[in-house]
Amino acid sequence: MNKKKKTEALIGEELLKKVKELGSLSKEEKARACGYYTITKNGVERVNMMKFLNALIDAEGIKLDGKQNGNGRGGRSASYRIAVQSNYNLLIGSAYTKQMNLKPGDEFKISIGRKHIHLTQVEADAVDSESEES
């Protein structure tokens, strides 16, 4: 039987250097040459592309895991700027409402200045007393 000894998978700078040396080879051939393969019980060689690509990402110093902008999920971060939409509405996105811990149904009083809009949160008990007076 042809027993091939598996080489240790390269990481970091060694991995980057080896991938550059392998130039025109396919991704699978590069992964195999860098040690990212396994040999099954039946002696079949399987290239582990996910481990190889993740190792390349790590070697490049790219951080894909971890919290982004404190909200824990991807998506957009608050830019603190909004634009009037084509239907003349202003949309305040979820990045802002989550940051303020707002819940559906929270109400605000709108004050309009010359070049600004000011929102003041209406307390729940104040809303209840206003609705009772009506």
From TrEMBL:
Key words, A-Z: DNA-binding
InterPro entries, sorted: AbrB-like, SpoVT-AbrB_dom
SpoVT-AbrB domain residues: 79-124
Membrane-spanning intervals of the chain: none
A GO CC annotation given for this chain: protein-DNA complex
A Pfam cross-reference name: AbrB-like
Superkingdom of this protein's organism: Bacteria
Molecular function GO labels: DNA-binding transcription repressor activity; transcription cis-regulatory region binding
Protein name: AbrB family transcriptional regulator
